[in-house]
Specification:
The model has no long low-confidence stretch (mean pLDDT about 85). With about 190 residues, the chain is an alpha+beta fold. The protein has a five-stranded antiparallel β-sheet, with no helix packed on it. The radius of gyration is 32 Å and the shape is rod-shaped. Helix 1 runs antiparallel to helix 2. Among the domains are: about 60 residues, no CATH class; about 70 residues, no CATH class. Strand 2 and strand 3 form a beta hairpin. The longest helix is centred in the last third of the chain and has 52 residues. It comes from Streptomyces scopuliridis RB72.
Amino acid sequence: MRTSRKFWRWRRNPLKRGTDRAEAWAVLISGLLLVVGAPLAGVATGMSVAASGPRLPADWYSVSAVLTQKAPAPAPADEVSRSDQVRATVEWRTADGSRRRGLAWVMPNTPAGRHTIVWLDGTDRIRDSPHRGLQMRALAFGTLAATGTAALATAGFVLVHVRLARRRESQWDREWREVGPKWRPHRT
């Protein structure tokens, strides 16, 4: 019958030392930090950054607008534009039912008739989305927090493993100094 190697760190064994138990706990804790702690740290940080963003003015609101014509191709790098969007003409209905037109940021080459969300102020003028920069910042800080937590968990495990290996070696040296002379053949 073959023995399983899956949970060898947790099996009972009369030869298992305290350093082996400590290393088993270090593996478990660092694994939990990597699998559960890092994602939680990233999500919590991202949500915190998003929640701490600037508040919208009270008269701003979002509406669904329709592109009236196909959006242009991406602008050359030397022109003033956003890196991933172009301006295109959109049409929307105001609260009183009248139609309005204006320029909004959309993805390049978006076909006419496609719906997009635009932000309007109290005078029904198009404003830049207040969430655009905030979402990217929240994603960046969340990623950094998750990566940092994973790095700390890994570095902590490596530090514990190295210290336990040194302790194990010193214990083996000490025990060998006691037992070694008994095993040597006596010379007469």
